[in-house]
């Protein structure tokens, strides 16, 4: 029987993305380097197979998808199996397949707790289960591509050289030895011959440089991700701070629904100007007082016409009587 779990955005026991990646790679013997690679759905399919054996046919899973259709196939297999098992978690496949960090991070947070609530600790060989396929195929731990077989060539038949050519070759070699000067230094000592191992050292430097460049690129991606996370949560706090400050200056209560909508927003929202946030918040606060002022204005004009009509009639009648008297 499945144990469903529920996670909110304000849960205190969330773990970092580095711990989540280490947990996924440890369970699947994979080499995933960032959370966005979970967007293919392949890792979730095999993690579900660990919990509920034979509910997903792993032969149909595209562990290294080459197109969007392959990833869509993985998510279809996963959601169909979850429906049969009884998992009531809604899955926004279109949103997860965009491979945005925040969406995949929150979904993996939930799945981590779901996995721990349903795992029975039975032994499982992930590599054998997926047929020895590397995950991902371009990872450092993946299988190296098979070397191309060398084409065997028949040795060329050597023709016997005529006897007259041997003295000529010996004479040519003697001339080269005599005419080729040895490199010398200023002091007259012979300079050492260039080392042939330089080519080998150069090749070693190239491999090392490539490795350092790859490491630098990875560190740059991590730095960009951290900056995006920092800006994302800073924008939330700044908007809430501006709303609270505006409400304090007006002497009114903060709009709780507005604050919660800002805190629970999962999409990246561009930072707004403080004036626009204050104006928007003030409009919501001043909406009710304007309606209260308009109500008495509509009631006042109704009474004066009723009072004036009976007074005017006797005045008009008195004036007519005076004219007749004169």
Automatic annotation (TrEMBL):
The keyword Cytoplasm applies. GO terms for molecular function: microtubule binding. GO terms for biological process: cell division. InterPro entries: CH_dom (IPR001715), CH_dom_sf (IPR036872), EB1_C (IPR004953), EB1_C_sf (IPR036133), MAPRE (IPR027328). Residues 14-116 form the Calponin-homology (CH) domain. Keywords: Cell cycle, Cell division, Cytoplasm, Cytoskeleton, Microtubule, Mitosis. One of its GO terms (cellular component) is microtubule. Residues 201-272 form the EB1 C-terminal domain. Residues 181-204, 267-326 are annotated as: Disordered. Residues 294-303 have a biased composition (Basic and acidic residues). It is found in: Cytoplasm, Cytoskeleton. Residues 181-200 have a biased composition (Low complexity). PANTHER family: MICROTUBULE-ASSOCIATED PROTEIN RP/EB FAMILY MEMBER. Belongs to the MAPRE family. This is Microtubule-associated protein RP/EB family member 1. It comes from Diploscapter pachys.
